[in-house]
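README, section 4: Worked example with a bound small molecule

Sections 1 through 3 covered apo chains. Here we extend the same pipeline to holo records, where the ligand is supplied as SMILES alongside the sequence. The molecule in this example is ribose-5-phosphate. Nothing else about the input changes; the structure line simply encodes the ligand pose together with the chain.
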Amino acid sequence: MKTTGGSEVEKRNAGERAAELVADGAVVGLGTGSTTAHAIRALGRRVEDGFEVQGIPTSYQSADLAREVGIPLTTLDDAAPAIAIDGADRIAGFELIKGGGAAHTREKLVASAAARLVIVADPSKECETLDRPVPLEVLPAARRPVSEVVEGLGSTPDLRLAERKDGPVVTDNGNLVLDCDFGRIEEPADLAQKLASIPGVLEHGLFVGLADTVLIGTETGVEERERRR
Ligand SMILES: O=C[C@H](O)[C@H](O)[C@H](O)COP(=O)(O)O
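The generated complex, written as structure tokens:
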């Protein structure tokens, strides 16, 4: 259920601008997805030019790409990111739905540890009110009980199926993903709290109060928004 409606130029403009925001010597959280990939490649080019950064990946995808472009990797055990760069599936102001690539658990961990979270996206991700299914990463043994609780909250959970294998998507952490459609989410903070309290839910894809900067790439440049604290 990836929602990658934007053009590569829009994504690249956002990603490359985010890479410019990284200071020499910084530890950077490396998000997942097609837009963040542009930021990782741009950071790799800066590293080739002598820039020193260390990346904390949020998935196999971002770790492999970082290695490919020469970004040294570290972990949250060893370093705290000054900045994290990540994509989003839906953006309403500074509130997000993430997890279209099933990476939202580690993405939220790294984003929460970072001093600044920069979101990169194309204009197709923007909306007035969050309105897409919210991914939940759930322990395999918790699929049925979690589904029942989520149904009680007014959603019909949908087990995410793999595209190139029979059966479900299995996350990088060995769990399942339930995509839960709540319609228009008028109170994301309230829903986030309810989802976080369900036993067996590792993490949900609502990111509330985490994003500091939103970079929307366009065909000709980047629109930048900074959250006032
Ligand atoms: O699990 C995946 C992530 O939350 C991605 O950051 C999100 O799906 C956006 O990906 P993309 O930039 O490819 O649209």
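What to look for in the output: The chain has six helices and 13 strands. Residues 134-204 form a domain with the Alpha-Beta Plaits fold (CATH 3.30.70.260).

Section 5 describes how to batch many such records.
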